[in-house]
Write a structure and sequence with these properties.
CATH architecture of the largest domain: 3-Layer(aba) Sandwich
CATH class of the largest domain: Alpha Beta
Distance between the termini: 40 Å
CATH topology of the largest domain: Rossmann fold
Number of strands: 15
CATH superfamily of the largest domain: Response regulator
Helix content: 25-40%
Radius of gyration: 24 Å
Length: 414
C-alpha cells in the first residue's frame, strides 16, 4: 500500500514551470494586409491626410520567436501541486462500483489474493492502435521489473465477446492478476467473477468493470470541458467568437460519449456562437487525418477540431498541415490523453495542435495498476475506486509535463 499511496501523492495535479516566452503561433486581428508588387505583404495604417500626401506605412516588427525553457529551470510536476477537479470524487458510478466490489471482497478470506512473485499479469485493452493504450502497454513492459511483474498483453478491437475469451484464457493460463479496460461491463461480469473466485486479482480502467479489486476511473467530464473551454477561448481570440468546429468522437465507447458531450459543453460555455458542424467517429491517427480530409471538402471554413483522444487529434493536425499550411495560425486542434504523439505535436511551431488534456498519461494508468496489484499480492488494502488526474498541457507547461512522463526532451520539435 505504501507504493500505491506514494504513487497517488506523486501524481495529483498542477504545474510549476519557469516562465516561457509567449507562444509565437498567434494571429493579429487588427491590421489590414495589402499585397505589394512582390510576394510580401505590409500593414497599412490609413489617415486623414490630403490626397496628395502619402499614407503612413507601418511595418510590424516580427514577433519574438518562441524560446523553449531551459530544462534546468523547469520544475517537474509533483503531487502536492495538483488538486482533484471539483466534484470529480462524487461521481455516482464510483459509489455503485465501490459498493459492489466492497461487498464481493468482504466475502473472501483476507489472504485470498496473497502470493509471492514473480507475478504474471494478463492485460486486455480495446485496441493497441489507440495511442494511450499503446503507451500504457509500453510503460508496463518498461517498468514491470520494478514490481517483479511480467505481462501478457492483448487487444480485442473493442469486441466484448473476444474480451471474454481473453479473460477465460488468462484463467486457464493461471495468471496472478488481470489488468483490463472493459468493453462491456455486463458482458465480462461472469468471466471476471470466475477469475476473482479463483484468486486472480483484477484491476481496471473506468467503470465498465465486472468483478475485481480496484478500478481507476478517468475524470472524463472535467477533461472534456477543459479542452472545450480552451478551444472556445481560441475562437474568441482568433475568430471573433464564431468558427466552424468538428468533434472527433467514438460512440462505440460510453466514456468517449461522455468526453464528446463535455467537449461541446465546454466549447459553447466560452464561445456560444461556435458552430459544431459534424461529429465523426475516429480512433487512430489515420482516422483523424481521413476525417479532416473529408470534412475540409464539405466545410472549407472548418477551423477547429476537438477530439476525444489524441489519436484523432494528432491525425487532424497533420491533415491541416498537409492541406492548408497557409492558415495554420487560424487552426486549433484539441485532444485528450496526453500521449507522446500529442507532446511532439504541441512542441512543433508549425503544428496547430494547441492543447491535450492528460488524465495522468500512461504513467498514471500503468503505475496505478502495478502498484495496486502489488499491494493486493502483499495483502495490503487498496481503494476500490481511484480517480485519475486532469492535466491540461499546452506550449506553456509542456516541459514540466515532459519531465513528469519521462519523455526525452531531446525529441521535442521546438
Amino acid at each position: 500500500m505504501k507504493k500505491l499511496l506514494s504513487l497517488i501523492l506523486s501524481i495529483t495535479l498542477a504545474f510549476a514551470l519557469a516562465a516561457c516566452a509567449a507562444d509565437s503561433r498567434t494571429v493579429s486581428d487588427e491590421s489590414i494586409a495589402v499585397e505589394t508588387n512582390g510576394d510580401e505583404s505590409i500593414n497599412v495604417e490609413t489617415n486623414d491626410a490630403e490626397p496628395d500626401a502619402p499614407a503612413d506605412v507601418i511595418v510590424e516588427e516580427p514577433e519574438e520567436p518562441f524560446v523553449p525553457p531551459d530544462i534546468g529551470a523547469v520544475v517537474p510536476l509533483i503531487a502536492e501541486d495538483f488538486v482533484l477537479p471539483p466534484g470529480a470524487e462524487l461521481a455516482p458510478e464510483a459509489a455503485e462500483v465501490d459498493a459492489r466490489l466492497g461487498a464481493a471482497l468482504a466475502d473472501l478470506p483476507a489472504d485470498h489474493f496473497v502470493r509471492e512473485g514473480p507475478f504474471t499479469i494478463g492485460v486486455t485493452f480495446g485496441s493497441l492502435q489507440n495511442p494511450i493504450f499503446a503507451a500504457i502497454a509500453n510503460w508496463l513492459v518498461d517498468h514491470g521489473a520494478e514490481y517483479d511483474m511480467e505481462f501478457i498483453i492483448v487487444d480485442n478491437d473493442f469486441d466484448a465477446a473476444r474480451q471474454v475469451e481473453q479473460i477465460e484464457n488468462f484463467i486457464q493460463m493461471g495468471v496472478d492478476g488481470i489488468f483490463l479496460h472493459s468493453i462491456d461491463g455486463n458482458a465480462i461480469m461472469d468471466a471476471t467473477k470466475r477469475a476473482f473466485d479463483a484468486g486472480i486479482a483484477i484491476v481496471g480502467i473506468d467503470f465498465q468493470f465486472g468483478y475485481g479489486n480496484s478500478t481507476a476511473w478517468g475524470v472524463h467530464i472535467q477533461s472534456g470541458e477543459a479542452a472545450g473551454r480552451a478551444a472556445g477561448q481560441f475562437i474568441n481570440e482568433h475568430h471573433g467568437g464564431s468558427a466552424q468546429v468538428a468533434i472527433l468522437d467514438h460512440p462505440e465507447n460510453v466514456n468517449a460519449i461522455a468526453r464528446a458531450d463535455a467537449l461541446e459543453r465546454g466549447l459553447l460555455e466560452v464561445a456560444p456562437n461556435a458552430e459544431v458542424v459534424m461529429n465523426v467517429s475516429t480512433l487512430s491517427v489515420e482516422d483523424g487525418f481521413n476525417a479532416v480530409e473529408s470534412l475540409m471538402q464539405a466545410y472549407p471554413d472548418l477551423r477547429i477540431v476537438m477530439s476525444i483522444g489524441d489519436g484523432g487529434a494528432v491525425g487532424a493536425a497533420e491533415a491541416f498541415m498537409a492541406l492548408r499550411p497557409d492558415i495554420i495560425n487560424e487552426i486549433g486542434v484539441y485532444g485528450i490523453d496526453g500521449t507522446d504523439e500529442a507532446v511532439l505535436a504541441i512542441s512543433d511551431p508549425n503544428n496547430p495542435y494547441r492543447m491535450t488534456v492528460s488524465l495522468g498519461g500512461a504513467r498514471f494508468w500503468a503505475e496505478n495498476a502495478m502498484a495496486s496489484l502489488h499491494s493486493i499480492f502483499m495483502g495490503e488494502p487498496v481503494p476500490t475506486t481511484i480517480p485519475s488526474l486532469v492535466m491540461p498541457v499546452d506550449i506553456d507547461n509542456l516541459m514540466a509535463y515532459v519531465l513528469y512522463v519521462e519523455f526525452d526532451p531531446a525529441r521535442l520539435l521546438w
